[in-house]
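Blackboard transcription, Thursday session:
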Amino acid sequence: MEEVALVQNEAVAAIRLAATTEALRAVELDFLGKNGRLANLMKGIGALPNDQKPLFGQAVNAAKAAVEAAHAARLRELRTAELAKQFEAEKIDVTMPGRAPRVGRAHVLQLTTDKIKRVLGSMGFVYAESPELEQFKYNFDALNYPPDHPAMDEQDTFYVTDDMVLRTQCTALQGRVFESVKPPLRMFTVGRTFRNEAVDRTHNHTFHQVDCFMVDRGIGLHHLKGTLGVFARAMFGDEVKIRFRPDFFPFVEPGVDYAISTPKLFGGKWVELGGAGLIHPNILERYDIDTREFSGFAFGLGVERIPMMAYGVDDLRHFFDNDFRFLSQFA
Amino acid sequence: MKLTESMLRDFVKSPLDAPELADLLTMTGFELEEIFESEGESVLDINIMANRGDGASVLGLSREILAKDPHAEPTELYQRAASRFPAADSGSRDIWAMASAEIQTSSCTRFACRVFEDLQNGESPEWLKKRLRQIGQRPISLLVDLTNYVMFEVGQPLHAYDLDQLVGGRIIVRQAEEGETLKTLDGVVHRLKPHHMVIADTQKAIGLAGVMGGEETEVTGTTTRCLLEAAHFSNTSVRRTRKELGIATEASYRFERSVDPEGVVVALNRFAELYAEITGGKPVGGVIDVYPERTERESLTVFLKRASGLLGMAISADDAERYLKGLGFEILGVSPDSLEVVPPSWRTDILREEDLVEELGRVHGYEKIPEALPIGSTPLGGPHGFEALTDKIREAVLMAGFDQTISHSLRDLHPLDFPADSGSGENTRVRVRQPHSPEMAFLRNSILPSLADAQRRNNVEDLHIFEIGRVHGTGVESTQLGLMSAGRFDGPGWRPSDSSTADFFTLKGVVESVAQAVSLATQFRRTTTDPRFHPTRQTRVVMAGAELGVMGQIHPLVAEACGLPPGTVLAELTLDPLASVAAGIPDYRPISRNPASRRDIAILIKKDVPYSEISDAVARSGGPDLERFWLFDVYEGQGVPEGLHSLALALQFRRMNANLTDDESNALRDQVVSALQALGATLR
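(Written on the board underneath:)
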């Protein structure tokens, strides 16, 4: 029994003396290890008379617990001190710049297009694409352009051959859809359009357009207004109001010019967004769609106009220049 | 077109002020471009739609206001205009004895004229000069000013000729002869072509029909006899002449938008009326009116239920009748369900029921249309098929750290253009016939030149960019993904030791990860000879069995030619072949709950044994327990014989529903090793 107390005292003293966690580890092995001195004491229990065995066992266990507690306390002390030293050595200047992961950035027109696709897609409009180099018939004839319309002039439209033009509007998708899809239908597209004109802040020979149309039973201008309302509010905010004004485009009748106003962006002024209307019955009839049963609407607008209006971009040319000083401003 | 507030009030009595009248016009479709003050009065500048020439007059705009605004009333002048300014008696002389006219071209529908004698062509009275100044017209002389003024009032262009300068006293409307010349009022001499329509006397052209008169027959201060012309010309002929010769006039502006064929003599009469008011003078003789083919308008019927359905707002028969009457339609019949009407002669744009529906809606007011969402069956919206696949590919490239660019399809030629097929010698470029400038004469046949432009514009060392867009070859339009990568590939930072530099393999990794994102298998075929790329560092890219294009390091000479860093790596992948493969469906396999065991091996092997053969051998020999393996080190140099290199491979084994023992893992490794030894490898 005395020996137990002796070993315990010796252990506690050694623990106190250990100056590093390494030294403490050695003490721990010496006293608390599998073959340590406390374990060895326990092994001697067999030589004792039976009546002393329980008492001895209890004493060794108590000593072990005491030594373990002392060890844990000392370990905590030493770790704290050592960590303090380590922390000091590992000091960094947290004001230095962070290292960013390389993340690809979508073009601002892509961000706009993605939003358009989400909004119109969620309203049941199917996204489709058609060629940029388009047949004359889809770009003009199919859209009810009279044979001598000014837009067909070589000065306004890029011709590759007499029959092939760079599409002047994404509405060129319409005829292609009507050829193969029977109504009811809801479609939209986003793509490039081309006009043969000089480039300046507000004009470019190439720009992007959204074109959206549907044909169903009983479609009227109220459905166009409702759809445009949802679309415009999704793009420009919940307070957007929409205004229709009569206008003329060969492919719609009645034709409207739609403007939006929102107190936040334009101080309540009406800002024209694009052209729209009910699909001209000549077009539907051309594709054997019975205009007594079906009617439809169509609307279009320039994609670039959306960030121009939303962010106040003042130069159309930026959108095709790929200058990352410009592009990195949008997310 | 510009008009002053007082000109409008000559025709309409309305309590509205000028801006309110302008708003009202805007809502009928005649949009206010600008409102400004001039000489103490408001002047409106109104944008006239391409099919509404009738609106290019004070009379026409007044008609719109009267139809739309129930509080507006017509003035006495309006009523006389509506009854077409009946002509006063002009004596008994036979006009055909003084002048004659003939139409020899189908582009002129009607030609009318009157003659004035004993003229004093002095200055106009102040009120007339003021109004012309206010609407941006320069006062010239009474005769010229009145032709202009009447045109603004009623929309019909007029022209005054000095009758004594007309050879033969005869007007012939005809097509120009090839090479015929004409000096117009602005002093410019034009060389004409047969598709230009001219007004001529018996000798030569004296005016460009519908566009501008000639200088020689112009009325001057000494003119004593004048022939006043009013005619109706085809809008296409006038437009073509105006565009080709580059002379836009107030007359051509109106003829292009169509003028009222029945308004021709009306304008002559209004001129005579004003001329008489100012000078006391009268025209002599009657009117010469050559009008070979007058066409009667046919009636149209509009059904109100249909109109209300298309407009989304109800229109009553009473309202419909009032609106159409106000716009000058002749009402043949009204029932509670429908109206039968004849459009007025100035509304050549009204051809079918839907055009009438628009008229009803326009006057009733588009602001009254409610918002409603269409009902009915909707398909699954958004992109599908190829478009959905392209979206996924774009997202994958963005995730791989590439910035997106969007560039012009129209451009000039570039060293990175897709090379012409040297076998057939065919030029695959698509060329625009009349480009605005040589820099945009061709449609790009590759995305790579656009990327090179973007690199040069930004002029930074580290640039990793892509574009997905259309490219054009003869008869083919395809969607292409272009990738360009140069410089440090990690994000911006200040510890350069961490950086990796873009090279063939970083780009290959991106291509592989893109394929993975759409669950398509990729292969790389070594045999390519694309002259734009480094001859021994290029490969063809195959996805889902379809060849998409080529990737590799830029050829040093091409890099020099287009100012790109020599280490730039590029990929040009045409995505269209993927349209026919089902967008990949991921191949699900259950995962094992048992631990994996890894065995690393290092082999020495000849450098000319392609890694693809090594990896094929590993995959084949590893058996089903080889979960994955990867190359983690390549070494050559000290300790490795010339012509050989050392490859370190990690093999990861795992078995479904069972643990692999060390012995089993070792046996599997040995299997792989012997397969590699068969390729000539030795263990290191």
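Lecturer's comment: The mean pLDDT of chain A is 92.
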